[in-house]
């Protein structure tokens, strides 16, 4: 990383409750137009309290809000910004593409250029289709699985979030292997009943589901490392058992790598755990911060997708040239610098995750840290946190106070106990030191109040 990309000096973690007047005014204006003043619920800070700062710009590891406050960014647009904000090769690629128009609605060479890089990282992806969000990717993968098997039921795991398609906004039913119940208003129970929501890391429950519903489960979809209940790693052997069990029952195995793809390794969790799924979904990093989702996998299934096959799927901005350019610059850089990037992300994440946990222990505050590479969560509860039920025991009020205390000290953590923190290649020793110092002061302030 070139030094000039980092700010001249890192301000210490002294408390300086930042002013937020302009952000508050912007939030009030936004509330006239958008539910909760936001275009995605978690941005409203409802889980941690207070009014959300509005961002003016970002650079490297830093966010700058509308009042001029600066923060070290630990959510990176919910994952995509693995190379840091405004990374020059990505910015230049988008600028170059934009000069030729933002969109054509026709095919370009850039789509296959990016696809070549994706299949080099994901050998299980023989063919793919670009879409514009992770939600579209998982929704399309499930439609494809139902068409490929002629079956209706889908299995997901509690705490895993796969976007907001109706059939995936489903909570666990009354007992294991019973039908799901709507996880949102507006999801008809007839649709929810087509999804079974099982405990993550629970193979007994999965086997019971297949026994209770023989030859009717089309697919099992899983976050290979849960990020949406906070970070929860797979139990040893859980993912390989999912592969075996789905294959033995003629169901498809869908690995949702929207968050973990290119994050935990260049080939994501599939590389980390040597997975060979039938379908894979990608998002976030693959678009370099622009809207890109991918569903892909075995050719025998992907060739069922229109216009080749009977499974309809479409999108006005799918394969958008600016998004392709941003994705290409990002994935191309990660591939070229893989040997430097991932060890660096591992070392920096380990230092900050363990450094803050050590400050909590010194302050007598109970934390359980779950981490895989550069995604992690500090749970305010006793460990181990191995599924959503255990994660849900966390003291979310304590997390909210910690979040605010860190925000006041220039550290922006994801605004929910049930989200994962991320870093970028722009985070270094200075940011780790400032974060640990801020945590020391934040825990002290939690103890006093
Ligand atoms: P999008 O539709 O938000 O692009 O992707 C949905 C999705 C699918 N699969 C996984 C594993 C995901 O993590 C996501 C989206 N993640 C959330 C953050 N936890 C997006 C942030 C938000 O909803 O604002």
Brief summary:
The chain is an alpha/beta fold and 449 residues long. Helices cover 37% and strands 15% of the residues.
Give structural notes:
With 449 residues, the chain is an alpha/beta fold. The chain folds into 2 domains: 12-73 and 340-448, Alpha-Beta Complex (Aspartate Aminotransferase, domain 1); 88-336, Type I PLP-dependent aspartate aminotransferase-like (Major domain) (Aspartate Aminotransferase, domain 2, 3-Layer(aba) Sandwich), CATH 3.40.640.10. The protein contains 14 helices and 16 strands. It has helices at 21-33, 88-98, 109-121, 134-149, 189-192, 203-212, 238-248, 268-272, 299-302, 321-336, 338-362, 388-391, 396-407, 429-448; strands at residues 55-59, 62-65, 70-73, 127-131, 153-157, 170-171, 181-182, 195-198, 217-222, 252-257, 279-282, 293-297, 368-372, 375-379, 411-412, 421-422. A 7-stranded mixed beta sheet has the order 4-12-11-10-9-5-8, with helices on both faces. Helix 7 (238-248) links the parallel strand 9 and strand 10 (252-257). It is globular. The two termini are 40 Å apart. 51% of the residues are buried. It binds ligand KE4. Residues 40, 42, 78, 133-135, 138, 161-163, 223, 227-228, 256, 258-259, 283, 419 line the site of ligand KE4.
């Amino acid at each position: 990383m070139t030094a000039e990309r980092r700010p001249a000096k890192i301000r210490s973690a002294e408390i300086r409750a930042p002013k937020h007047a302009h952000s508050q005014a912007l939030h009030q204006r936004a509330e006239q137009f958008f539910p909760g003043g936001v275009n995605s619920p978690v941005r409203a800070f409802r889980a941690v309290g207070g009014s959300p700062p509005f961002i003016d710009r970002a650079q490297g590891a830093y966010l700058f809000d509308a009042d001029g406050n600066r923060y070290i960014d630990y959510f990176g647009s919910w994952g995509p910004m693995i190379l840091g904000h405004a990374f020059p090769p990505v910015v230049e690629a988008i600028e170059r593409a934009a000069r030729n128009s933002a969109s054509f609605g026709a095919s370009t060479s850039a789509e296959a250029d990016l696809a070549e890089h994706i299949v080099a990282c994901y050998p299980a992806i023989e063919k793919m289709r670009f879409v514009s969000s992770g939600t579209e990717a998982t929704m399309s993968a499930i439609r494809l699985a139902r068409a490929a098997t002629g079956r209706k039921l889908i299995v997901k795991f509690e705490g895993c979030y796969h976007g907001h398609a109706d059939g995936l906004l489903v909570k666990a039913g009354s007992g294991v292997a019973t039908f799901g119940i709507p996880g949102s208003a507006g999801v008809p129970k007839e649709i929810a009943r087509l999804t079974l929501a099982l405990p993550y890391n629970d193979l007994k429950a999965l086997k019971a589901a297949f026994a209770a519903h023989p030859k009717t489960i089309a697919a099992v979809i899983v976050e290979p490392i849960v990020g949406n209940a906070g970070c929860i790693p797979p139990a040893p052997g859980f993912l390989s058992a999912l592969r075996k069990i789905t294959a033995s029952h003629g169901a498809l195995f869908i690995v949702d790598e929207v968050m973990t793809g290119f994050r935990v390794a260049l080939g994501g969790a599939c590389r980390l755990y040597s997975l060979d799924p039938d379908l894979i979904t990608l998002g976030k990093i693959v678009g370099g911060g622009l809207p890109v989702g991918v569903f892909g996998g075995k050719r025998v299934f992907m060739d069922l997708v229109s216009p080749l096959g009977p499974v309809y799927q479409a999108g006005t901005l799918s394969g958008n040239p600016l998004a392709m350019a941003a994705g290409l610059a990002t994935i191309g850089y990660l591939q070229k610098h893989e040997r430097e990037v991932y060890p660096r992300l591992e070392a920096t994440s380990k230092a900050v995750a363990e450094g803050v946990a050590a400050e909590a222990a010194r302050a007598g505050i109970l934390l359980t840290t779950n981490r895989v590479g550069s995604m992690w969560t500090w749970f305010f509860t006793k460990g181990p946190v191995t599924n959503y039920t255990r994660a849900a025991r966390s003291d979310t009020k304590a997390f909210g106070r910690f979040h605010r205390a860190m925000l006041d000290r220039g550290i922006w953590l994801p605004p929910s106990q049930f989200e994962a923190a991320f870093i970028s290649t722009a985070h270094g020793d200075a940011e780790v030191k400032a974060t640990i110092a801020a945590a020391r002061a934040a825990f002290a302030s939690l103890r006093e109040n």
